[in-house]
Design brief:
Structural class: alpha+beta
Number of helices: 3
Low-confidence stretches: none
Radius of gyration: 11 Å
Bound molecules: zinc ion
Helix content: 40-55%
Oligomer: single chain
Order of helices and strands: EEEHHH
Strand order of the largest sheet: 1-2-3
Length: about 60
């Protein structure tokens, strides 16, 4: 189960394995499925993750 992070303006979804955050729940679920199966990150998935800077803009 991905973590849901609620902001004032939007919801973000966090992979419980690698703690990266995504705007898309589908991608967060993909990331988590990959992370728990492979114990590593898939660059094709984590490129969709929000950067810390992007996160600051949203909060
Ligand atoms: Zn992950």
């Amino acid at each position: 189960m991905v973590n849901i992070i609620k902001n004032k303006s939007c919801e973000l979804y966090q992979c419980a394995e690698c703690k990266l955050k995504y705007e898309s729940r589908k991608i967060a679920e993909k990331c988590q499925a990959w992370c728990s199966a492979h114990k590593s990150c898939n660059i094709a998935i984590i490129k969709h993750a929000l950067s810390e800077e992007h996160k600051k803009q949203l909060v």
